[in-house]
User: What shape does this take?
Amino acid sequence: MEICKNGNAGKCKQSRVLIKGMSFWVALTLACSVMFASHALAATKLEFSTTIILDADTANEVDDLYAVVAALIEPSWDIKALNATHWQTSHWSSPTSMEDSHRLNQVLTGYLQMPVPTKRGGVARMYDWGDQAQHSAAAYEIIKQAHAMENGERLTVIALGALTNVASALFIDNSIADKISLFWLGTSYDFENNVLGTTDFNCIMDTQALHYLLNSTVPMTVIPVNVAYDMQFDLADTTKRIKGFHPLGDFLVDRWVDHMDGLRQSRAIWDLALIYGMMEPDWIETTTITTSKDFGAKEITYMSKIDGEQMYQAFFQRFKAHLSK
Assistant: This one.
């Protein structure tokens, strides 16, 4: 996932990197924001099935790789498939964005020697009329795994990019609304003023899919980009910790440097915040909100705060522990 290039905010951990923040809300919420109808301050405990489909735009940026690896090596999670998601609407998209992510997903499972099925997703956003779905192996895998759940259980779908595959699956078979729950990185949210912004990268990659899910009965848990921004990695420290430790560590560092947006000395590893927010409920705070009518009047659980430092340390500890076996 990649944030809009016109904004920069949040706080990095001073032990690793110091970044002077710009006004995040000037860039995001003033551009396109929607007031929420209500806002509850009470925290909500996250509950989800560990039967999971991971849906990622892995080749889009650097963060997806770290998040996908963290999810794949979690021993308590049963990941049924790793889906590829497009980012075709982006100004810096490649002509084969979904296929690029699909190939990279195969590389990661290969390094980890994990036989997790990798599925191709939709090649672009949903259509505007008629059969709006992007029919793909990824969408049908979501449907298949949803129907395989026992009565009363929901398949957990973790979406790290555009919501095309998830919304397409729901459009094709609306009966899975009662059989899936969605965890997603997307939107921005001003918790002080109760304002939702929808100009971040994952939203604008497929606004059709976003609105379709907001108007559905599918339970949604969201981490907004301004909260995920606190998940900061430092290139020098990352290189020191995993470069030369394992070929996968070399690959992750090389990807950071060689990516079209590479050579940043620090960067937000957005998607990892969602993964560890799900794994470690003590490292997050949550807030339940209800969207305005034009956004479905939908109750959503928002991750409102994270402990980025614990998440940062956990990645390297668990990465090394897994690959040392």
